[in-house]
Amino acid sequence: MFARPSRRAPLPLLLSVLIGLPLMAAAVGVRPAATGQLPDREVDAFVTQLGAAVRADELLTSDDRVRVAQEDEDPDEDGLSSELETELGLAPDDPDTDDDGTPDGHEDTDGDGLRNIDEVRLTETDPGRTDSDGDGRSDAREDPDRDGLYDRFEVNRTSTDPRAEDSDRDGIHDGYEDRDGDLLSSKGEQRFGTNPNKRNTDGDRRSDWHEDSDRDGIPNGREQDSGPIPSSLRPRLSRATDDVPPTHRKICHSRGTATTPRACSWTFGPRQGRKLVVLTGDSHAAHWLPAILEVAEHRGWKLMNITKSSCPVADVMPSPGDAQDRACMTWRHRAWARIQALEPDLVIASSLDSYGFVYGGSTRTKSDSAWKAALTRSLRKLGKGRTKVLMLGDVYPWGAQGAVNDCLRRHPRNFAPCQKTRSSGTAAWVRRRDKVGAAAARSANATFRSTRNILCPYDPCSLIVDRILVTRDGGHLSATYSREIWRAIDRLIPNL
């Protein structure tokens, strides 16, 4: 942005000059030999008399050219070009113009909290102006990537890219990462002035989450997301329940007493070597579909879904055991047969893991051991032959279906009271079910991956991430957010 344009002669100029030497020789008083070629000494004289029109560094290697360019543009090696230093009133040939022990590149000439070199290389702002774009906000407090973190915080504290909302491309936006494991997001640490790289910034034996920085009697962790519902929320709260996976609109997701599996398919990439992947389970499998569709396009798969609401992956009859629950048992066994006939490369299975189910004929239970045995049976059925099986763990519950949206409507100016903490009894119970799911997967020679830290990287589990509503109804992901976190899901899926 502030670099001086290179005045180096291009290679095509060198070739044209060399080819045209005999024709131009007369212009400088050098007589060609009878053969039409110039002797070496006369070539040297010719080049000298042209004023060395072609610079010698054009004949250097590419690495050498970079070095020469850097030396030419930044002779004092302080990270700032000579042109920029002149504009800032600094000495281009002195790395520490004011002799204060701080190199010019590390100075903050405009006093906005960003070093000169960081404004040039990272934030792409003017180190000579506090407010480069004249919008009334200092460069240090800009947030061009809209990840919730100011540029100064990203540069000086989290070392994330102020021009990318997800610097490490892990599917979790920079502002919502918990770098030090204290359950405060980076956004929360910025809000309360704590260190995102230390669990206990002041060393007082109380974690930053449990501090009460504003002295209102509420710990920082409970208030870290305090604020109004964004006016640009996607999907709009009034349309949240309509933000569903494409299967729901194409009528290829089974419901109610249906016993025949329906399916949709999407095909990406070249035919040769294409992998077949099947997504199966209940509506908690279907809500991953927008993310997995992005993965399928990225990897060039053919993707099929075979899903049914209120019908878990585990081989159990959901309670109370009515006609719909009995239909689930029939549907599941038919789904197994269809998937086995397809011989897919990978089956991705997922479902709600807090079902009550009928056990021993009539007893309603949530027994971990019975759930593990039933899930193991199912995963073995899905993993016949060469097929790999991946079981995605369930999400943290955001609240009773419908209740979350009602709460958000009641609290438009501060949605924090609508969020559940990880310490709730329900959250603790479902964490235990992750362990049960992992044990079942091991027994079935399948793979289990938890998704809880993707959707709840800090505490409480946020309902809104960067103006995106996370859940459409309190129990399922919104299709918009599912699509947003596809890179995080991609990391959980094995290579095929």
How would you characterize the overall build of this protein?
With 496 residues, this protein is α/β, with parallel strands linked by helices. The chain has 19 helices and 11 strands. It has helices at 11-19, 21-24, 40-49, 62-73, 82-88, 116-123, 151-158, 186-192, 220-223, 246-250, 283-286, 289-299, 323-342, 368-382, 403-410, 425-443, 452-455, 479-484, 486-490; strands at 264-267, 276-281, 302-307, 317-318, 346-350, 357-359, 363-365, 388-392, 447-449, 464-465, 468-469. The protein has a 6-stranded mixed beta sheet with strand order 1-3-2-5-8-9. A hairpin with a 2-residue loop joins strand 10 and strand 11. The longest helix is centred in the last third of the chain and has 20 residues, at 323-342. The protein is elongated, with a radius of gyration of 32 Å. The model is unreliable at 1-38 and 45-71 (pLDDT under 50).
What is the number of E strands? 11
| Rg (C-alpha, Å) | 32 Å
Return residue spans where pLDDT drops below 50 for at least 5 consecutive residues: 1-38, 45-71
Give a quick account of the main beta sheet: strands, pairing sense, barrel closure.
6 strands, mixed
Report the total helices.
19
CATH superfamily annotation of one domain: SGNH hydrolase
What is the fold-level CATH name, i.e. the topology of one domain? Answer: Rossmann fold
Strand content: 5-15%
Outline type: elongated
Distance between the termini: 43 Å
**What string gives the helices and strands in order?**
HHHHHHHHHHEEHHEEHEEEHEHHEHEEHH
Architecture per CATH nomenclature, i.e. the level-2 architecture of one domain: 3-Layer(aba) Sandwich
**Average pLDDT taken over every residue:** 86
Structural class, by secondary structure, is alpha/beta
CATH class of one domain: Alpha Beta
